Amino acid sequence: MDINLEMLKILTEADGTCGNEKEVRKIMKEYIKDYVDEIYTDKLGSLIAKKSFDKNFPRIMIAGHMDEIGFMVTGIDENGFLSFQPLGGWSTNVMGAQRVTVTTSRGRKIIGVINSRPFFTLPIEQRSKLPDMKDMYIDIGVNCKGEAELLGIMPGDMVTPYFEFNTMANPNYLLAKAWDNRVGCAIAIDVMKSLKDEKLPNELYSVGTVQEEVGCRGSKTASYMVNPDIGFSIDVGVSSDTPGVNKRDAVGELGKGPLINIYDGSMVGHSDLRNFVIKVAHELNIPYQFSYIPFGGTDAGSMHINLEGAPCLYLGIATRYIHSHAGIIHKDDYINTVKLLTEVIKRLDENAVKKIISGE
Q1: Measuring CA to CA, which residue among 230, 183, 235 is closest to residue 205?
Q2: CB 272 within 8 A of CB 309
Q3: Distance between CA atoms of 120 and 112, rounded to whole angstroms?
Q4: pTM of the complete model
Q5: Cα dihedral angle (275, 280, 283, 284), rounded to 10 degrees?
Q6: How far is 94 from 70, CA to CA, in rounded Å?
Q7: Which of the following is catalytic: 21, 68, 212, 350?
Q8: Is 68 assigned a catalytic role?
Q9: R_g over Cα of the chain
Q10: Pairing of the two strands 173-176 and 327-330
């Protein structure tokens, strides 16, 4: 398959934190609309795109969350500096001197930078310590609070990392913000695209969920509406192929295939569904890697305990430098994840789903 780099650029450069996914939802809807029979949203804002031939067929749900890590403006001081609340998991070691975009309630975008104290002004005892989040602020280059307010900035406004999409020196490597988790949104779109002419033995739902980074909230409401028989969350995974990373703490190398997650802090991957996916991968010579995360979770953590429950699996894309302003993925991992999911979905007929659920 050919990767639509323009789609990846538009998705990753869009701004959308938890509870502010409108811009991303509009883009995802535009790209997926020609491949599905119906598109709707739940009351939290998750996008649900459905391809159906028979309502009695098993329901398969693919979820990629639309929100990215970012911040929320909580106040403006008299000098026009913005205080903020993190949305999602941030460490201050990746925040200082980084550019951000403040999006006002009227959609105006204002560039700012998170403060960073010069090294030589720090007391010696503080030079080896991380800055405290409460001491950080956003500088938008104004003289006073009134000037910031005239720009339309107010508490509650969304703040996102500012970073442009780039193809790297080796064009198989792609650099961007918000791979977590616009890559999942893009894969959900491309799986639907690859199946557009197929008569499926199931009902397929590609879902762009909201508010994953603050507790997998959108996947709860979306899976309640879909009520899947089988579910997949598509998300980034922590790469282990960079200097200084202990391979016991991170599993996954760029270019070595999709990550099949064994467990994380929210779910033990369903063993029979996992074996089904592995069998398809072997059949088609699709490379894959195993991953495990002893903390955190993905949308599958909510999906698998919805209503009467559903076998679920988290498939990941190894990504360098996640939960920062920029990450790197490999084209081959993207292509192979789309291919693997596409072929798995073709094979998930009523009999296969019953066997997975029953464990026979």
Answers
A1: 230
A2: no
A3: 23
A4: 0.95
A5: -140
A6: 12
A7: 212
A8: no
A9: 21
A10: antiparallel
Task: State the helix-helix crossing angle for 331-347 and 179-194, rounded to 10 degrees.
Answer: 50
Amino acid identity of residue 175, one-letter, is L
Determine the distance from the C-alpha atom of residue 60 to the mean position of all C-alpha atoms in its chain, rounded to a whole number: 19
Q: Which two tokens stand for residue 134?
A: 């409460």
Helices 271-283, 350-358: crossing angle, 10 deg rounding? 130
Distance CA 315, CA 164 (A): 26
pLDDT of residue 219: 93
Encoded tokens for 352: 């296969």
**Lookup result for tokens 């800055």:** 131
Give the per-residue pLDDT at 143.
97
**How do strand 38-41 and strand 47-51 relate by DSSP bridges?**
antiparallel
Q: What CATH superfamily is the domain 74-161?
A: Peptidase M42, domain 2 (2.40.30.40)
192 and 35 Cβ atoms separated by less than 8 Å: yes
Cα separation, 134 vs 248, whole angstroms = 32
Q: Between 3.30.70.100, 3.40.630.10, 3.40.50.150, 3.30.70.1450, what CATH number should domain 5-68+177-358 receive?
A: 3.40.630.10
Amino acid letter at 195? L
Residue 162 tokens, joined: 């500012």
Look at 98-102, 231-235, 285-289, 295-299 and tell me which has the smallest mean pLDDT: 295-299
Amino acid (one-letter) located at 347: R
pLDDT digits (tens, 9 = 90+) for 314-333: 999 999 999 999 999 999 99
pLDDT in tens, 217-239: 989 999 999 999 999 999 999 99
Q: Where are the domains of the chain?
A: 5-68+177-358, 74-161
Residues of the binding site for Zn(2+): 65, 180, 213, 235, 323
Q: What is the mean pLDDT of residues 89-111?
A: 96
> How far is it, in rounded angstroms, from Cα 360 to Cα 358?
5
